[in-house]
Predict the structure of Rad and Gem related GTP binding protein 1.
Amino acid sequence: LKSFNPVYRVVMLGPAGVGKSALTDQFMTSEYIGPTDNTSIDTEEEKIITVQLDGEESTLSFIDPEDDEVDLDETKVDAYIVVFSSNDRNSFDVAVETLHQLREELATDKAIILVANKIDLARKRKIDIEEARSTALKYDCKYAETSAALNHHVDELLVGILSQIRLKQNPE
Ligand code: GDP
Ligand code: MG
């Protein structure tokens, strides 16, 4: 008997231009995508894939809002991906503010991954790994560095978010 397969909802957060849509697009082409085809129900702001990990299939819905005015307190959210651009200090400040809102004001214990995107722009880098990592630690988040442009570490981010969601659902 096949067990009930819930849809995990993941919200992409971060100011315009950091690469939220580029990352979401790369998720849609991941090697971890399972055989189930859900593309017919995709919209511009919500994309659904089935991911095969550790012999188990999970359905993930990525919400990629166009504007910055996102209602963070969505009860049906399972995880947040907070993206900043590694070459843009302002976007990092926005990410820190978002982490503060999520953990301190909303007091959520949902999975959060802080993502430094655009690490291919290495010579323009403004936020070093130590600063970003310690910020993630402070807010009890995982940390990832990606390049959506080069599809670098994007699969790891996809697997990481699903692993975090599963851990929260099923501790041990
Ligand atoms: P969004 O507003 O957060 O959805 O950002 P987009 O995904 O639309 O990306 C904004 C711009 O940054 C686009 O021109 C992308 O091609 C570019 N971009 C996204 N990810 C990367 C990356 O990893 N490296 C570089 N160099 N450019 C990127
Ligand atoms: Mg976008």
In short: The chain has a mean pLDDT of 92. The radius of gyration is 15 Å. The beta strands are 7-13, 46-53, 56-63, 79-85, 111-117, 142-145. DSSP finds four helices and six strands in the chain.
